[in-house]
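Comment thread on ticket #2218

A.B. wrote:
> Attaching the input chain for the structure job we discussed in standup.
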Amino acid sequence: MTTTRISIDISGMTCAACAQRIERVLSRVPDIEQAVVDLAQDRAVITLPEGQGEKVAVAAALAAIASAGYQGFARGGTLAERRETRARRDAALRTESRWLHLRAFVAMLIALPFLVAMGIEVFQSAHGHVIPPEVQFALALIAQTFCAWPFYHRAYAALRSGTSNMDVLVVLGTTTAFILSLRHLWDGSAHHGAPLYFEGSVAVIAFVLVGKVIERAAKHEAGAALTALAEMLPDQVTIREGAIERQVLREPLQPGMQVVARPGAILPVDGLVVEGHAFLDESSLTGESLPVSRGIGHAVQAGSGVSGGALLVEVRAVQDETRLARLARLIEDAGLADAPSLSLVDRISQIFVPTIVGIAVLTALGWLLAGAGLERALLIATSVLVVACPCALGLATPIALVAGASAAARRGLILADHAALEAGADITAVAFDKTGTLTAGKPTLVRVVASEGGEDAALQAAARLAHLSDHPIDAAIVAGARTQGVFREDVEQFSAKAGSGLSGVFEGQRLQLGSKAFLDPDGQQASDIAMLETRLDPVERCLPASYLSVDGAIRAILVVGDPVRPDARAAIADLRSLGIRSIMLSGDRQEVVDPVAAGLGIDDARGGLKPEDKLAALKALAEGGTKLAFVGDGLNDGPALRIAHVGIAMGTGTEVAKSAASVVLARPDPRLVADFIRVARRTRAGIRENLALAFLFNGIAVPLAVAGMLSPAVAGAAMALSSISVAGNALRLSHFVR
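C.D. wrote:
> Ran it. Output below, let me know if you need it in another format.
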């Protein structure tokens, strides 16, 4: 049965419980077969059966999301519509973030005098209030209404949907402390020594809001990849109508029109070459490391770079129908098959919150049965709620992630999504793209073989011709000549035949540089060529080569390839020492991939893969239980970077690859991948240590509170101390050194 999938951007989600709640309300909407909510990218994807009206279903879904307390933005089908929706969603998220920062700032300003007063009152012999009761009430009222409003909103939404979260615990503890304090203020007893508990409610609100700020800072804002994709293509293009050429905007292009693409241009459309010949850099789309020859009758793709000639392309696909646009949707939709897993804290909170509430209720009932008054029983129950309030528990994960990110940054690891540190600790295998990741990613002269040992002279002669060409292979030959100090420019009667080779004259000698078919069309020099080729190793024979002839006799072969990065072998060995398997997934031909993989010691090498093939390979490995990191650098790697357990992009890669990844290597050193996994493992250990500290305090303090040995004020101080201990442990993690 055919189904339709529709994406909806969402603002207002703060935890995995939010995602679960939205999934539940969407699942109750008629005709929605499935709803999956992705917390990391702030979106939901609903699946509709064939024939179901999309507009009606989307409107119902948006209404359901609003009823749950969130805001939804339906994405359009085109890239332009998606960009517009994302802009509206991002504006809502920015507004929400500004309010969160303001509330946290105000709450901390209010909490500081209370915390100072608590310290002073500990050393006072006579009970008294350092801060006048009316001032305490005014400050606490601001905290309880303005600062704590999001907690009330989310707690109400959670209870209405039949669930509980940490917001419920925050609301119960702070509201009870506030109401008890207000009672003592109302009857005047606060002015005669009766205790106030405003400081407990204020401190809880302030600490939890700070935790929310840290969590928000750790979230990765989705959508940058699509912006980078849109910016790849030129806004204006040249079209030909009969014998006339003119500039037009890209948007009105239609199939059947003819587009002119000259050297240095980026193709704006998918189409068929009807005139001309050029070399296209398709590495970001296909992973092919070297430019490919394209002439009449060849299909070409939007996003390809043109060099070595001009093309006239008949438009076959534009805008959202191009392969580039389909790749954009792959990047955006990868990884949505399964619902996001709950974080460890969220799983714990689902049990912890109702447990603590139950303990508080039983405590109040127990003290009432023991003969204590109602106020005394409520006060003790409030102490239980306050001391168990999840400040340290809520901070345990985000503050450890921030500390881990700090340690990663010092190693040259840029984290676009701090949650990657949690995921990175589980990695069991790393899959690498080849071109630009384990290799340099650009054509480089790797070998010159010349008759009679005249390599330098042959390179100099080839460079005399090559410097007048803009082909990347010729540019590599010129760069090689410059490096070896033999580059010269002087040549006469230069000519170029597109797709074949170059010719010129120097000191009376006829020089030619190009393919075998160009230099020896009749095969008369096959034996001389074969003799030179025997001096190449098996890897070099698979690489592109230019042949040099002098006065009609072939004298040299110049091999251009994509050399392996100097640290690649050490990177693979480092991963093996961590017990991690290495895999290569490349768009290059298998005969090129195999020798590179063998030289590096890679466990599994697969070549000739399109982006869809890489995606399928990663899914198959994941279904087998492998926790995969994928390392890439090109546009074609975008979908794989999204769907992998952790996506890692080279800092020298395309903006699309870096935007699609969770981790970016600041320098092109594959050894940083192993460093990331080490930091991730240490961060996970830090999270567990923080959680253990948080529960250690609760394990000691909750029984004391149940026994009536802690007032809400002291309970608030204990809660603050647990948060400080968690922060201190995180600081130690931030200075983690290998």
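A.B. wrote:
> Thanks. Noting for the ticket: The radius of gyration is 33 Å.
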